[in-house]
Amino acid sequence: MVTNYFTQAAGSDNSTAPASKPVADKCVVKNLNFFYGELQALKSISMTVYEKQVTALIGPSGCGKSTFLRCFNRMHDLYSGNRYDGEIILHPDNENILSRAVDPIEVRMRIGMVFQKPNPFPKSIFENVAYGLRIRGINKRAILEEKVETALRNAALWGEAKDRLNDLAFNLSGGQQQRLCIARALATDPELLLFDEPTSALDPAATASIEELITDLKNKVTILIVTHNMQQAARVSDFTAYMYVGELIEFGVTDTIFIKPKHKQTEDYITGRFG
Amino acid sequence: MKFSRRNDAKSEDMKISAQNMDNRNDVVPAYKSLRRNFRRHIKERIIESILFLAALFSVFITFAIVYMLVSESMVFFEHVSLREFLTDTQWTPLFDDAHYGILPLVSGTVVSSLVALAVALPLGTIIAIYLSEFAPFAVREIAKPFLELLGGIPTVVYGYFALLSVTPLLQYFFPDLPGFSLLSAGLVMGIMIIPYVSSMTEDAMRSVPMHLREGSYATGATRFQTAVKVVVPASMSGIAAAYILGISRAVGETMVVTIAAGMQPNLTWNPTEPAATITTYIVQVSLGDLPHGSIGYQTIFAAGLTLLLITLIFNILGHLLRKYYREVY
């Protein structure tokens, strides 16, 4: 499918296109509205998340970027009174994951998530990573060991963790815990990985390692990341969406958004004049 | 223009605040000595002393009870050796051929408690998991007060419930069951303890932060998987404390076993037999007409001390468990 972004980019400035290879759609959001009870938190959002690319959601606090992110794995289903309206079409199934006919558990089986605060379970490092596999009924030791090692390697934690797999996960440092949570999400081979401000609770060194990891991961998995840190969005993402009070103001190639934003408001936010 | 208007507004503000200051000066004196306020100091000290005395009182009572039990037991142990007390298999202090072996009472206590815990711990935990992880808000708001009401029913009512309802019901299934049995008393005791276990367990589970649950749901876990694999392990220290409380209640429970378990000391591990527990024996003797100071009367202090030691062991165990499973979210 030919995407909007190519036509847009071609129209404005050809040199800002990030990739020469064609980019496939992973998720197409169409007219998404979201309500916390009576309160409308998202207002008719339409955009595309491209496969094996990093898409960043930026905007001031309370703009709905986390709310938007949590629609992708139906996290809002856990609380009563929330309502979705609109579509998020997941490819290659071409199915609306917000539909009532879709089981949120099946969605979460394929879409992983990493949270703002590292949230390892009160278990060993090994069992934390193996958690999603055990949930899927995989209990063979050999398979678990192989998957756990791969996930920890992909999360750049294997070197530090391989000799202490049976230690309690809380004994790791904050940055290590967050990488453990990334390993936990990676262990089940998700198609899309959601990051909800993954570095906001971490120090600069740990932040740098997580950012590096995200850049490495994008060859393997599609990534959607919420961040309040614009430099981070600029560093790690291929596409950026700027949101403001529940609305998507601007979406496009990260370089374009940061160098030549079309909207004055986006420019003001990015240059730090407000937000 | 704009500037001057702002200036006007400011001077208006200042006028108002000046007025306020004037008004305040009527109530609060402008100057106060920085010296220590003697009256305030005395008041604080009095309040502090009252609080201290209240705390001291509970400590004092505890020590007084322990002192009484130990000193009276000493009189008993002058007549009966500790060895006899712990190894003799008969407890017949009121007979001509007196035996002073605590084992029959301990066995009755242990068996009735085990039956009670076999009911209360699993059921209490299941109820807690339901209320904390599954129940919609409305259901929880209705179910919790009812459950707590269960804990407010007088134990003597439970005793008659065991004797007059549960025993006949059990006899319907087991015709050989005697009219008094540890089984019947233990089952009802278990029902009685459920609210203590479930309420504390639920509190512990609800204090597990939501982001831990979300982490589990995000991997595709169901509610039940999240409850059992994440929430229960995360609240283990609270759950252990709830279980220990349940055990202490079962061991110390008096009324239900007095009414429904029969009062004869009987060294048995079979719950379908009647037997006495430590507590029932103490009731029996305290209400009897034994002369004070007689060796028979003195036995209840030794029995009471044994009971205290058993509950003390469980409390220490609970304390250690809580430290071991300390929550680190």
TrEMBL record, chain A:
Domain ABC transporter: residue ranges: 27-270
InterPro entries listed in its UniProt record: AAA+_ATPase, ABC_transporter-like_ATP-bd, ABC_transporter-like_CS, P-loop_NTPase, PstB-like
An example Gene Ontology molecular-function term: ATP hydrolysis activity
Organism: Nitrosomonas mobilis
GO BP terms, alphabetized: phosphate ion transmembrane transport
Record field: compositional bias (Polar residues): 1-18
Domain of life: Bacteria
E.C. designation(s): 3.6.3.27
Keyword annotations: ATP-binding, Cell membrane, Hydrolase, Membrane, Nucleotide-binding, Phosphate transport, Transport
Name of the protein this chain belongs to: Phosphate transporter subunit ATP-binding component of ABC superfamily
Region (Disordered), start-end ranges: 1-20
GO cellular component, one term: membrane
UniProtKB/TrEMBL annotation, chain B:
One Pfam family linked to the record: BPD_transp_1
InterPro entries linked to this entry: MetI-like, MetI-like_sf, Phosphate_PstC
Keywords, ordered alphabetically: Cell inner membrane, Cell membrane, Membrane, Phosphate transport, Transmembrane, Transmembrane helix, Transport
Residues passing through the membrane, by range: 46-70, 102-131, 152-174, 180-197, 230-248, 295-317
UniProt keyword Membrane present: yes
Family of the protein in this entry: Belongs to the binding-protein-dependent transport system permease family. CysTW subfamily.
Domain ABC transmembrane type-1 residue range list: 106-318
Membrane topology, as annotated: Multi-pass membrane protein
Name under which the protein is recorded: Phosphate transport system permease protein
GO cellular component assignments: plasma membrane
Entry annotated with the keyword Membrane: yes
Localization per Swiss-Prot or TrEMBL: Cell inner membrane; Cell membrane
SUPFAM superfamilies: MetI-like (SSF161098)
